[in-house]
Write a structure and sequence with these properties.
The protein is mainly alpha-helical. It contains four helices and two strands, in the order ββαααα. It has a two-stranded antiparallel ribbon. A hairpin with a 5-residue loop joins β1 and β2.
């Protein structure tokens, strides 16, 4: 079932993500495809860097990440995109483990 908007909370009732403009992935198929291709590495990477796992992906995000060759390649693309944005004078956010 796909929800057009809403909040996803963890077991401690902490908000993991909030989506308004895209459909939240609530079907097992896209997540299963990501799991089959990238294993648990993608989920762990997203939890470490963004603070939430693959459950908060939209269909569009899941499709993009499925096409990425590896988690390392996706990380390299994020680094390149941030560097390009900084060269153009655009602000970038620092992402990393939550401490």
């Amino acid at each position: 079932m796909a929800l057009p908007f809403g909040v996803i909370n963890n077991a401690n009732d902490e908000t993991l993500c909030f989506k308004l403009s895209h459909v939240v992935v609530a079907r097992p198929n896209p997540l299963s495809m990501l799991q089959d291709k990238h294993g648990n590495e993608l989920n762990q990477f997203r939890r470490q860097i963004l603070g939430h796992g693959t459950i908060c992906l939209t269909d569009i995000e899941a499709g993009y990440l499925y096409r990425v060759e590896s988690v390392a390649a996706g990380n390299a693309r994020m680094v390149q995109a941030a560097a390009a944005a900084r060269r153009q004078g655009l602000p970038t956010a620092r992402i990393g483990p939550r401490i």
